[in-house]
Amino acid sequence: MVKLGESTVCPVSRSLDIVGDRWTMLCLRELFMGATRFEEIQIQTEATPQMLTSRLKALEANGMVARHLYSEKPRRYEYRLTEKGREVYPVVQALRAWGETWCKAPDEGVAVLYSHQECGHDVGLDNVCTHCGVRVERKDLDARLSDKFAKERAQRHAVFKGKTGPV
Amino acid sequence: MVKLGESTVCPVSRSLDIVGDRWTMLCLRELFMGATRFEEIQIQTEATPQMLTSRLKALEANGMVARHLYSEKPRRYEYRLTEKGREVYPVVQALRAWGETWCKAPDEGVAVLYSHQECGHDVGLDNVCTHCGVRVERKDLDARLSDKFAKERAQRHAVFKGKTGPV
Predict the structure, then answer these.
(1) Which residue of B has its CA nearest to A128?
(2) What's the CA gap between A23 and A47, in Å, rounded?
(3) Is the preceding peptide bond at B74 cis, omega within 30 degrees of 0?
(4) Residues A1, B85: contact at Cβ < 8 Å?
């Protein structure tokens, strides 16, 4: 748990104390993609269970994720973003826009296509709908995975299940 | 240097390979605040010279920072953001907005106040000017440090200079 009133009032530094770690951000990415269970997050982030456990614990301690019991025997929890967690979305969105623009070859295509639920138009890489001109948050958007990204994610799932055997 | 065409087409993951490190982001924060020299960045990030050297080298290798010779004897370089580097600003901006909102006590105040150069109005934590309704980028904004943050930064400078002696 990161405490308030530390050595700096810089909000960027404060944020980075909590989310300035690659695995934490990948974990948040999966939660934004709708994952709720440890295994799903583990498969798609390719984090080790130890790495993921420490990140989820920290996210919970920082009030960004809440655990909900979904199975008594064995005891299993779902992870859901709180309001504080959901409000990190602009960071993920900005990383996405920059990554699509600067870190990809032209033939790779956009990994996830987001459309504005209200009007159905593609919002591109922006957080403002080009059609309606209104600010859009994650909750206002429908997501559709590109074939390439869907295949990649399915493959990670298959590899994991093949490795661990049927559950 | 991070190569294109890796194991994932996820743009968030690609971005994090480059900027998903606390020290890299703090270094970018300083470059956005106008720092150009190694020592200035070192003072305000409180990174060790080794840590900062590795981050600046990676930023240069990834085409986000360009080095410019400003002194022949001794050989000294300035670091300036390229277009690719400048375009990371929305990530910093989103971290700032989230940090100000969720990681600070009410009495701490906003660390840096940004106003829209064109109209002079405070833009708050947003990337859209509330007065003009237009999207604003870093280059469109004037920055004013809060007294608290200015003092904190001056103190870091004084401590560093006291430690290393007059240069």
Answers:
(1) B135
(2) 7
(3) yes
(4) no
Residues A99, B152: C-beta atoms closer than 8 Å:
no
Q: Where are the alpha helices (DSSP H) in chain B?
A: 11-19, 22-32, 38-45, 49-61, 83-86, 89-102, 147-164
User: Residue B138's closest CA among B102, B99, B91, B80?
Assistant: B91
Please, what are the domains in chain A?
A: 1-87 (1.10.10.10), 88-167 (no CATH)
Which of A46, A95, A129 is the best mutation test for B, with the most CBs of B within 10 A? Answer: A95
B144 touching chain A per CB within 8 A: no
Which residues on chain A are in Cβ contact (under 8 Å) with B10?
A: 29, 99, 111, 149
pLDDT digits (tens, 9 = 90+) for B123-156: 989 888 888 888 888 899 999 999 999 999 999 9
The Cα angle at residue A61 between residues A57 and A67, in degrees rounded to 5: 65
- Buried b or exposed e, range A113-142, using 16+ CB within 10 angstroms: bbbbeeeeebbebebbbeeeeeebebebbe
Amino acid identity of B121? H
Task: Classify the complex by whether its ipTM is higher than 0.90, answering yes or no.
Answer: yes
Q: Which residues pair with A76 in a beta bridge?
A: A71
A·B CB contacts under 8 A: 154
- Residues A30-69 have pLDDT tens digits of 999 999 999 999 999 999 999 999 999 999 999 999 999 9
Amino acid, single-letter form, for residue A141 = L
> Which residues are registered as beta bridge partners of B134?
none
Cα–Cα distance between A20 and A1 in angstroms, integer?
14
Looking at the complex, report in whole angstroms how far the Cα of residue A75 sits from the nearest Cα belonging to chain B.
31
A65 φ, ψ to 5°?
Answer: -135, 140
Note whether A90 contacts B92, CB cutoff 8 Å.
no
